[in-house]
Amino acid sequence: MTPTIPNLMTLYRLAAAPAAAGLALAGFRDAFFAVIVISLLSDLLDGPIARWLKQESSDGAWLDTIADGGTVLAGLLGVYLFEGDSIRPDMAWLLAFLASYAGAAGLSLIKFGGLPAFHLYSSKLAAVGSGVFFVWLFVLGYSQAVFIAAICLGIVANAESMLVSLLIKRLRTDIHSVFRLTRTHGDRGA
Fold it and tell me: What is the pTM (predicted TM-score) of this model?
């Protein structure tokens, strides 16, 4: 992989996910939140920077998907460890998100042998929702409404990812939207 700025940002997230999990397990709440928020910000910025600098690559897209997964799992671990008592009444929402996340990944793995790297707009919106939730949680404390809103955005993004996997014939990156897919690719498999 070429060491471009966006790829370096993604590599940061790959390294930050286990570091954040370790910080959470060690009880370092402030450091955990800082690492996760920086990871979420870098996830939002790496794609636009790649396009702006003309440094887009399929390797970067696949690596970004792995980094996203690591960030999600580390983030959920920390939320559970630090706010487990707060989210326990809303655990069904978290389990629904995890099921949809596993469904999106599993469907792509079964159909294509690889993880989805579609970079859907809904996924970016879900990342923003996650960032809002993390900042809110850290600064103001747990909010059921913000938590459920962030979870719902994630479930919608995962549902769109599953729909895209069902519609396309071969695994591709950077589809952005199921609506764009059906509008620009009449055969849905181009």
Answer: 0.85
Please give the structure tokens belonging to residue 126: 């879900």
- CA angle 92/117/54 to nearest 5° reads 135
**Pair 129, 149: CB distance under 8 Å:** yes
Domain ranges of the chain: 5-184
Work out the number of other CB atoms within 10 angstroms of the CB of residue 33.
Answer: 22
Q: How far apart are CA 173 and CA 188, in angstroms?
A: 14
pLDDT in tens, 143-164: 999 999 999 999 999 999 999 9
Cα separation, 69 vs 38, in Å, equals 15
- What would the CATH number be for the domain defined by 5-184? 1.20.120
What angle, rounded to 10 degrees, do the helices at 5-26 and 29-52 form?
170
CA-derived radius of gyration, the chain: 17
